[in-house]
Amino acid sequence: MSGSRITALGHYQPSRVLTNTELEGMVDTNDAWIRQRTGIATRRIAGDGESVTDLASAAAGKALAASGLEPADIGLVTVATCSAVDRCPSTAAQVAAHLGIPSAVCFDLNNGCAGFCTALACADHTVRAGAARHALVIGAEKMSDVTDWMDRSSCILLGDGAGAAVISAAEQGDAGIGPVTWGSDPTRAQAVRLAGAWQPRFAQEGQAVFRWATTELPAVAREACLRAGITPADLGGVVTHQANLRIIESLTRQLGLRDDVVIARDVVESGNTSAASVPLALSKLSERGELPSGTPVLIFAFGGGLSWAGQVVTCP
Ligand code: UT7
Fold first, then answer.
1. Which of 76, 130, 238, 280 has the highest count of CB atoms within 10 angstroms of its CB?
2. Three-point CA angle 121, 126, 128, nearest 5°
3. Where does a domain end: 148, 172, 196?
4. Tell me, what CATH number does 193's domain have?
């Protein structure tokens, strides 16, 4: 096969909405600071009994149903996550069990917030190599499990959710997943952390990551377009990692986009859902009809590592 394309999307968010006003009662913060510094107004928080597997399965089930494929058609399931609790079986294997996918290769992938775009590239490469024909690629996080609810600098940022894509082999000319641009800067590995065996908690050097994302990543995002054979002006949509509205505005401003390009701003209602943020935002825009089928969209994510990954995809 000469490539693959996304044929269906799905997403899931827990019903519980946590507002900035509620956070004012939990830590020394206020709605004005959170909105001005991050753009975030609300985030979704999973219930005690709701696991990363539950979030992932709900999103993946929707994508699979929308694809029209049977569970037995899926040859690969991968879940990008850094907040899953179980080491074995993998979240992907648990999702396969939930959805009745009988014989797929299943594995989790942790590349922090860049996880979904990384997993999508791995699945695309697998399909290109002929090792699977259809794959389920999921980003799922229960960040509320790894949030320090006493730390005002991070607890206001994070949220729970999942997004999923079904990808299928495609002939030359019909492929819809462009070459990936990915990499990492391990000299800044400690700038985003979720470390420790006992109760790991998310922490980051916020200003350093902000500077890195807004100064070094626009060139990388342009490179992803170049590798797809287009320029940013050809894009119909841009879905970056949803960490901070100010980063999204700065990054997209530097790309030279058309005025009518659709830019994902799901961070406002969902907060930072790490590896789930890109597929969640993409699926929501697609479901609302804001990214019609055939739209070229740059998806691009960055975070712990510090790492990045992105590619141009055609909207299903
Ligand atoms: O997803 C992984 C990748 N991560 C990112 O992309 C995150 C990148 N960084 C950011 O988005 C921003 O740096 C943050 C949103 C995390 C923080 O915004 P900032 O504008 O960089 O704020 P800051 O950390 O420099 O803090 C400014 C002030 C400090 O007070 P002083 O020292 O100036 O008196 C903080 O203590 O704001 C204070 N502050 C708060 N005040 C009210 C920190 N958190 C809060 C809060 N409410 N929640």
1. 280
2. 95
3. 172
4. 3.40.47.10
| Domain containing residue 273 | 181-314
| Ligand 1 atom closest to 204 (CA) | 4
Look at residues 113, 143, 172 and tell me which one is the last residue of a structural domain: 172
Query: For 172-214, what is each residue's pLDDT tens digit?
Result: 888 999 999 999 999 999 999 999 888 899 999 999 999 999 9
Tell me if 176 sits within 8 A of 26, measured CB to CB.
no
Domain count, the chain: 2
pLDDT tens digits along 110-146: 999 999 999 999 999 999 999 999 999 999 999 999 9
Distance CA 300, CA 238 (A): 8
Indicate whether residue 206 lines ligand 1 (CB < 6 A). Answer: yes
**What is the whole-number distance in angstroms between the Cα of residue 205 and the centre of ligand 1?**
9
